[in-house]
């Protein structure tokens, strides 16, 4: 009789333990569906505090020059261990057929010439509010900085001053903030020679998207 009672207690204990384990597993499974942002290609699952950031050196274009495109390419190439002088990059881009050193197609060709695999592609952003963030997250998570072609007025550092410009997006941070709206940060390197504008910077995803769309909506990302 005592053995039967002991056996029943053991069985009850095991059943309770099994229910607890199943409940925990279910809780984790539900958690996987939370904290998602909608992108133009579907949904990208992100946990609160999700982030990605690449190590990209900051280089500045020469004083009073318009060589932000080649300087941005130099930053991206250097992050892959390809060290080329700015003058060499300018010369190559300037001599590309039907392009020049400010043309985004020249920049795309330049990056793919020295980073194997032809991973860099040019994209035009859609009007979706998450168009840029989708490209940013996918490219950074794949290990590729994003070249952004823009007008600077929408970037906080410029306080409305508009230049046609290139910057390099190097990372992101996303945090859920409830009624406060959360944190949607893009980290970027600005090659502008004026240190009031240039350097390692950050802004909101939508500010960067506005700056890009205020020009032609063009980026070059990796995949």
Helices and strands in order:
Elements: H1 2-31, E1 36-39, E2 42-45, E3 50-53, H2 68-79, H3 86-94, H4 104-114, E4 120-124, H5 131-141, E5 146-151, E6 164-175, E7 183-190, E8 199-204, H6 205-213, E9 218-222
Helix pairs in contact: 2-3, 2-4, 3-4
Low-confidence stretches: 21-43
Mean pLDDT: 84
Number of strands: 9
Helix content: 25-40%
SSE arrangement, N to C: HEEEHHHEHEEEEHE
Alpha carbon gap, first and last residue:
68 Å
User: Rounded to an integer, what's the Rg over CA atoms?
Assistant: 24 Å
The coarse silhouette is globular
Strand content: 15-25%
Q: What's the tally of helices?
A: 6
Could you give a short account of the major beta sheet? 7 strands, antiparallel
Structural class: alpha+beta
Key terms for this structure?
alpha+beta, 223 residues, seven-stranded antiparallel sheet, 9 strands
Short description:
The protein has 223 residues and is α+β, with helices and mostly antiparallel strands.
Task: Describe this structure as you would to a colleague.
With 223 residues, this protein is an alpha+beta fold. Helices cover 37% and strands 24% of the residues. It has six helices and nine strands, in the order αβββαααβαββββαβ. Strands 3, 4, 5, 6, 7, 8 and 9 form a seven-stranded antiparallel β-sheet that branches. A two-stranded antiparallel sheet has the order 1-2. The chain is globular.
